[in-house]
Every structure is written in structure tokens, then in C-alpha cells.
């Protein structure tokens, strides 16, 4: 059954450097998701280590943190039906070489170490990630579209 959810989507430093912020936001807007939080952050390695704590110990972990701390990211929360699963499918497979054309990674990336954007992999991780990146809380507003589709 479809569920109304929030997911944490982050445009990584390579997505920002390549001027893909607008294109990525447009995809989520056009799909019908509602933007409920957005900010640009140059995150510290400590903040990123916490975000990726499940990957501590992986051989690529130090390189991942260095890459993620190399420039600002765009942190966002998107809301809508099945936002977590649909957000992941819009991103495509982690390794862009395996991402289908039409997905964000499949259209814009080639290397797993520069894969443009992150999306929460479960509702539970989304809750944790939203609290980690938006400790100040996020806005609440009613979208006119909600009257039509929910
Ligand atoms: P993300 O958290 O960024 O959305 O990615 P994911 O769930 O699809 O993949 P995950 O396994 O959690 O990996 C997190 C990020 O680490 C980098 N990575 N590099 N060099 C490598 O083999 C390798 N494997 C993963 C990627 O940036 C990946 O998105």
C-alpha cells in the first residue's frame, strides 16, 4: 500500500559543482513531490561521518568523507506518496554504470565515487537523516495539490 512519507535527498558536492541543482529539484517537483526543507551546507567531516556511520570500516569510507566535505551540498526534504522508495528509484543504482537511463545517476554520472545525489534507503533512515540535517525542524504547509491527489 502506498504511504505518505518524507525522504532526505542530498545533492552531493559534484552535483553542485556541475550546476545540476536546478535539474534535480525540477525532477522531484515535476514528479509531484512537495519540497518541505532546503538548504546549502558545507558539512564538516564529523557531521558526514555521522551521516554515513553505517559505512564506517568500508575501504572507501575515508575517500567518501573527503569527497562529501570537499564542497557544499544541498540538503532537502521531499514529501509525498512512497517518497523514500520513489526517491531511490529516481536516483538510480548506487553505481552509475548500473543506473538506468532516465534516472538521475543514469543520466548524469559515470563513477560510483561521484554519483551526484543521495536518497534515504528506508523510512527509518529518512527520519534519522532529516533530524541530523535539519535539527531546527522543517516547515509545514498545505499544498493545493494535496486536495486533488490525497
Ligand atoms: P547514498 O547513501 O549516497 O544514497 O548511496 P547508496 O545508499 O546508494 O550507497 P551506499 O552503499 O550507502 O554508499 C554510500 C556512498 O558511498 C560511495 N561509494 N563508493 N568506491 C566505492 O566502491 C563506493 N561504494 C559506495 C557512493 O558515493 C555511495 O553513494
What's this model, at a glance?
The active site is at 118 (pros-phosphohistidine intermediate). By secondary structure, this protein is of the alpha+beta class. The protein has helices spanning 13-17, 21-31, 45-51, 61-68, 83-91, 104-108, 123-133, 144-149; strands at 4-11, 34-41, 73-81, 117-119.
Protein architecture, described:
The protein is an alpha+beta fold and 150 residues long. Helices cover 41% and strands 19% of the residues. A four-stranded antiparallel sheet has the order 2-3-1-4, sandwiched between helices. The longest helix has 11 residues. The protein is globular, with a radius of gyration of 15 Å. The relative contact order is 0.24. The mean pLDDT is 95. Bound molecules: ribavirin triphosphate. Ribavirin triphosphate binds next to strand 4.
SSE inventory with pairings:
Blueprint: E1 4-11, H1 13-17, H2 21-31, E2 34-41, H3 45-51, H4 61-68, E3 73-81, H5 83-91, H6 104-108, E4 117-119, H7 123-133, H8 144-149
Antiparallel strand pairs: 1-3, 1-4, 2-3
Family: Belongs to the NDK family.
Protein name: Nucleoside diphosphate kinase
Binding site for ATP: 12, 60, 88, 94, 105, 115
